[in-house]
Amino acid sequence: MANRKVLICDTVDVASLALSEDFEVDYLPKITPEELLEKVANYDAVVVRSRTKIDSNVIERAVRLKLIARPGTGLDNIDLRAANAKGIEVVNSPEALVEAVAEQVVGLMLALARKTPSADASTRSGRWEKERFVGVELRGRTIGIAGMGRIGRRVGEIAKVLGMSVLGYDIIEIGRDVLASIGCTMVDLDTLFSSSDFVTLHVPLSPETRHLVDSRRLSLMKKGSFLINTSRGEVIEEYALVEALTAGTIGGAALDVFETEPPSPEILTAPNLIATPHIGGQTAEAQRMAISVTGSKITQFFQRHG
């Protein structure tokens, strides 16, 4: 295999990629869009995370590019149509983040159910308000999982162990054996929102899923129910969510992703909201695996294609 040039555009543990001497690696984690346009023509592969956008202009300039690799999940910062039209393969490593994100979802559910952030803030301020912080148990509640991919299924497995009933929704057919293993009943999306005590979102960002959760869907939710989003921020219409939280239409929400990141001050002022800085996949184990899996896929790609 001839030497291949790889451009790494975002912060990555280069050593964990474990690329051999067959690869010449340039690590430019602060590269600007203008610099990327100037340099991309020199590379066979590009590695990005969420910061760098690979749009049609970049792909047009990428005359020798064969592969775009993104450690982790989500490909909405890459123009897949333009890449496909030019014969450029795109790979990521969503399998590496499954456990981390699923555990984050369960942690956020527990924090919402037991009002943990508010109880912590109250106690630190010198108050002792046991009566104020009466929560609910997960056992016996219904979780609705919108998106039954790897992460959604793992959340369902954990929810079943916790004694929850599991509803699921997806645009693709899920195997009966998978559904049986987690006791999941598939329903339409409106039924999922109206029947669940906790709704968790695990859908990719697309024109069809942008603002999938709008004022109408929020109005379907049970009073006192909770919404969790660790997928993509644009899936929720944030203005409508602020209104629902302010009016008490739903009991609370936990967001790890936002329409704009960092989020706008308006969403952060909403009551009964837990906000975390896109850390669903931020465990030491998941990050190591995401990088190593990506490195393996880069190596395997060029072994196949010479």
Largest sheet: 7 strands, parallel
Name the CATH architecture of the largest domain: 3-Layer(aba) Sandwich
Low-confidence stretches: none
By CATH's scheme, which homologous superfamily of the largest domain applies? NAD(P)-binding Rossmann-like Domain
| Total domains | 2
Calculate Rg over CA atoms.
Answer: 21 Å
Secondary structure: number of strands:
12
Give the terminus-to-terminus CA distance.
5 Å
Would you give an account of this structure?
The protein contains 13 helices and twelve strands. By secondary structure, the protein is α/β, with parallel strands linked by helices. It has two domains: 4-92 and 285-305, NAD(P)-binding Rossmann-like Domain (Rossmann fold, 3-Layer(aba) Sandwich), CATH 3.40.50.720; 97-275, Rossmann fold. A seven-stranded parallel sheet has the order 8-7-6-9-10-11-12, with helices on both faces. The chain has a five-stranded parallel sheet with strand order 2-1-3-4-5. Strand 3, helix 3 (56-61) and strand 4 (67-70) form a beta-alpha-beta unit. The chain is elongated, with a radius of gyration of 21 Å.
List the helices and strands and how they pair.
Blueprint: E1 4-8, H1 14-17, E2 23-27, H2 33-39, E3 45-47, H3 56-61, E4 67-70, H4 80-85, E5 89-92, H5 98-114, H6 116-124, E6 142-146, H7 150-161, E7 165-169, H8 176-182, E8 184-186, H9 189-195, E9 198-201, H10 215-220, E10 226-229, H11 238-247, E11 252-255, H12 265-268, E12 273-275, H13 284-305
Parallel strand pairs: 1-2, 1-3, 3-4, 4-5, 6-7, 6-9, 7-8, 9-10, 10-11, 11-12
Helix pairs in contact: 5-7
